[in-house]
Amino acid sequence: MFEQVAGLLTEHAQLQEDLADPALHADPARAKKVNRRYSELNKIKVAHEHWQQLQSDLEAARELAREDEAFAEEIPELETALAEAQEKVRRLLIPRDPDDGRDVILEIKGGEGGAESALFGADLLRMYMYYAESKGWKTEILEKDESDLGGYKNVQVAIKTNASDPSQGAWAHLKYEGGVHRVQRVPVTESQGRIHTSTTGVLVYPEVDEPEEVEIHQNDLKIDVYRSSGPGGQSVNTTDSAVRITHLPTGIVVAMQNEKSQLQNREAGMRVLRARILARQQEEKAAEASAHRSSQIRTMDRSERIRTYNFPENRIADHRTGFKAYNLDHVMNGALDPVIESCIRMDEESRLEALGQ
């Protein structure tokens, strides 16, 4: 079942030679991609060697058991270990999402529920910031539109990881967060103590490694500048530092006013614009090859309700995987791993099924 391993090991050896070549590191973007692929293949190489060693040990134990029954006691344990090693290699051979090692731009947008939705948006931002901190990732607020009560009508955050292993990348974990998040709780604005249901949207984009990766012509951009404003429309800047960038071919609009400098807002806006264009291109490819993407639980439908946060019951439930736990307080403090792992496992199972393995 591991016929493809030989080819991957050959590729691994070639990448090892490439990484030893100083010329590669003169191109940081290419070096980063080579490092990601090498790390991915190295895990397969190590797991395959372990499987081969266990197979050899089992054959030796069976042969020795014919002469000495004492060796027979080792056979069941080796058989179990061999089956586990084989399953590990099998899962590592599942084709990865090529973007798994990328950083992400995560956007939280208010939905149904008005002020309560914006307040929950702030709670989600805090949850993701704590989760990133637990992973050792770096975060940077690119843009925020605060509500009068201290929530966020819209907030965008860049999440970066230095992991060379794609499976530990920000996109590998956070790509499943895109969709509608539903909250059930008593809002601070509710005087009767009634439980309300509100929704907040989350969008996740893989960040572009290098600007050249997504081609944007200056003539395709319409750039407007204006004076930034805070909650309630109050002016927070006396200069025209806010920037609105419209990409005419796609109609994508990005507005930035978080920084006091027009240049900084423009740079942040271009980062988000590149990520959104890349995501648009990926969606178009996915639509063309939907059969190959059908195994993924990550949806391109941003209106899908993916998760419910029930505060009175302290319950978190993911509607795609069936995951349910009564530790919402811990999840809101960044303990997202079990929820996300349920998404990763379901995605792997559906990929395996699609491959017919």
UniProtKB/TrEMBL annotation:
Keywords: Cytoplasm, Methylation, Protein biosynthesis. It is found in: Cytoplasm. Signal peptide: none annotated. It comes from the Bacteria. SUPFAM superfamilies: Release factor (SSF75620). Residues 227-243 form the Prokaryotic-type class I peptide chain release factors domain. GO terms for molecular function: translation release factor activity, codon specific. Gene3D superfamilies: 3.30.160.20, 3.30.70.1660, 6.10.140.1950. One of its GO terms (cellular component) is cytoplasm. The modification N5-methylglutamine is found at residue 234. PANTHER family: LD18447P (PTHR43804). Peptide chain release factor 1 directs the termination of translation in response to the peptide chain termination codons UAG and UAA. This is Peptide chain release factor 1. It comes from Leucobacter luti. The lineage of its organism: Bacteria, Bacillati, Actinomycetota, Actinomycetes, Micrococcales. The gene is prfA.
